[in-house]
Specification:
Layout: E1 2-9, E2 17-18, E3 23-27, H1 34-44, H2 52-62, E4 66-73, E5 76-82, E6 89-94, E7 100-103, H3 104-115, H4 130-134, E8 138-139, H5 157-168, H6 173-197, H7 202-229, H8 234-270, H9 276-289, H10 298-348, H11 353-402, H12 406-428, E9 436-441, E10 446-451, H13 458-478, E11 486-489, H14 498-511, E12 517-522, H15 525-533, E13 542-545
Parallel strand pairs: 3-12, 3-13, 8-11, 11-12
Antiparallel strand pairs: 1-2, 1-4, 4-5, 5-6, 6-7, 9-10
Helix pairs in contact: 5-6, 6-11, 7-11, 8-10, 8-11, 12-13, 12-14
């Protein structure tokens, strides 16, 4: 995928800008709108918003007008149209065909499948990854310029490897399955902890069960004695009243158990829903930086958790309705059977022992329900521990399986580090101590390490990002791996020394044969004249020239 042009419609809020296949400079002093221009591109590529601080003002500026970005994906031209007033929707389609309206989340999936079409890929991928993967290509000054791909504090090492392996076509099955496994293990540990926090003890519960059982036996003996002492009803209690009592007890126990289940479900529903807005603030930066759920990025971590919570709530509400209806129906039956029992007893004899018998029957039913609850807790605890053991076994199996991939990883790093060294030596002009990408396999982790052999200044650290991104882009293109064929850097160049800037420009010129686009901002006039002094023609590389009298959107920054 590459960028063709960006403009507003129907009114020209900013000039139409066409992108070169190679270098694209956005020239202008500070506070003239260079970063905002890059954010407009990012916005059309479905970022959550431009910036909150600017959003209200930009809504006034753009009004009903939309921002349109034309792109090329595998030799087909597409158009994305998006409004700042209505950022949750966008229009998308072939320029030569029909343009359709989509919800942003739906369009992200469509664009992911278009851009990263990897039908032959044998690992795992998700159509929710678009914005995660685009952070490899778009680095804006206020958030991302100083962060390398493996420094995302919001992602585990396996998550970083999962995304990167997908980009370069390596099988990421291990990292994905281990991410799932570790997430499930964490939830199981939390559930076991919750059970124990309620003063649960397997040994104590066993003792309590024995005590309840003994109490039931004692009351049953007293009950039989009470029945036996009443000669008037002893025979008929056996064949009439006792049948009704057993039926009532059975219904009581079922209702008691269902009410316990309702309490559990109600408590589950009482947990606050995921606050997508609040978590988005945190995870949007994470996703923009490296990327969902991430299952566990927003967008991936949030989407996954949201889907789990949503499906869980639907299930629970359905179960609650069924259980409540069942309780109502049983309560009606209990009332009916109690009336039937009362009629039988009244027809036989009126005696105080009947109250005593009823009390004992009720007491037995309560104890039996308690016995059932205690048994369920033990079963639940045992199930959790069994699941925990299953996950541990699976983790061990994954560890053994992953060691088989080591040869494939080494083969990849040899190729990738060759590309790293090539871009490094041509831009930095050093022949030794070039950076390296290392893939280290630990017990349950694949650790991606981008190693610098020198202490880097801020500017050198930025150039190391560019070196890595260039190697990644070159690797994908040389191996025909679908990817975004552009790199956007905001405010990178101004921190570099003059020699590095000149070397970078010359290197990017060489890369134009790959048709990779490089969109960079320049705010230093001296830098501009420095490049001209080296007889480097910049005129056809400048796609937007801003100044104090010609600010983007005609506003102050």
């Amino acid at each position: 995928m590459r960028l063709i042009k960006i403009y507003s419609y129907p009114k020209e809020i900013f000039p139409c800008v066409s992108f070169n296949k190679g270098i694209n400079y956005v020239l202008g002093k500070n506070a003239t709108g260079k970063s905002t221009f890059l954010r407009l591109i990012d916005f059309c590529l479905l970022s959550p918003s431009i910036t909150k601080s600017q959003n209200s003002e930009l809504k006034k500026i753009f009004g009903e007008n939309t921002i349109i970005l034309e792109i090329e994906i595998r030799n087909k031209l597409y158009k994305i149209s998006r409004s700042i007033l209505n950022p949750n929707n966008a229009e998308f389609g072939l320029i030569s065909g029909d343009i359709e309206k989509y919800k942003i989340n739906d369009l992200k999936k469509i664009m992911f499948n278009l851009i990263y079409d990897k039908k032959e890929y044998k690992g795992y991928s998700s159509s929710n990854w678009l914005r995660t993967l685009l952070t490899y290509n778009i680095k804006l000054a206020d958030n991302y310029r100083n962060v390398t791909f493996n420094q995302n504090p919001y992602l585990s090492k396996n998550q970083i490897s999962e995304y990167f392996f997908f980009l370069v076509g390596l099988d990421n099955t291990f990292t994905h399955e281990m991410n799932e496994l570790q997430y499930n293990q964490k939830e199981i540990r939390q559930l076991i902890k919750n059970v124990k926090s309620n003063n649960f003890s397997q040994d104590n519960n066993a003792v309590e069960l024995q005590r309840i059982k003994q109490e039931i036996n004692i009351i049953e003996q007293e009950l039989f004695k009470s029945i036996g002492n009443n000669e008037n009803i002893s025979v008929k209690m056996s064949d009439k009243i006792n049948i009704k009592n057993n039926e009532i007890i059975e219904l009581w126990i079922k209702n008691y158990e269902d009410k316990q289940t309702l309490d559990y479900f109600e408590e589950d529903l009482s947990f606050k829903e995921i606050n997508i807005d609040n978590i988005s603030k945190l995870y949007n930066q994470a996703n923009e930086l490296f990327g969902g759920n991430i299952r566990k990025t927003l967008q991936e971590a949030i989407d996954l958790k949201k889907r789990l919570q949503s499906s869980r709530k639907i299930f629970i509400k359905s179960e609650i309705e069924d259980i409540e209806q069942a309780i109502i129906e049983r309560s009606i039956k209990i009332k009916k059977k109690e009336n039937e029992r009362g009629n039988i007893i009244n027809s036989l004899i009126q005696t105080p022992s009947i109250d005593e018998i009823s009390h004992k029957i009720k007491k037995i039913s309560e104890l039996q329900a308690k016995y059932s609850k205690q048994t369920s807790e033990i079963d639940y605890y045992n199930e959790l521990n069994a699941r925990k053991n299953e996950l541990n076994i699976k983790a061990h199996q994954l560890e053994e399986k992953n060691n088989e991939n080591l040869q494939e990883y080494n083969k990849f790093t040899n190729k990738f580090n060759y590309l790293l060294k090539d871009s490094y030596t041509q831009i930095i002009q050093h022949n030794d101590n070039s950076p390296e990408l290392l893939i280290k396999i630990t017990k349950r982790t694949i650790d991606m390490q981008y190693v610098f052999f020198e202490k880097m200044s801020e500017g050198q650290n930025m150039i190391m990002n560019i070196v890595f991104d260039l190697a990644l882009n070159n690797y994908c293109q040389s191996n025909n791996i679908p990817t975004c064929n552009f790199l956007i850097y905001d405010d990178f160049i101004n921190s570099l020394d003059n020699i590095t800037i000149i070397n970078l420009h010359k290197y990017l010129l060489k890369q134009e044969k790959l048709e990779t686009q490089f969109i960079l901002t320049i705010s230093n006039d001296e830098l501009f004249y420095l490049l001209k002094k080296q007889k480097i023609n910049l005129e056809d590389k400048i796609i937007l020239n801003l100044n104090i009298d010609n600010k983007l959107l005609k506003r102050d920054y």
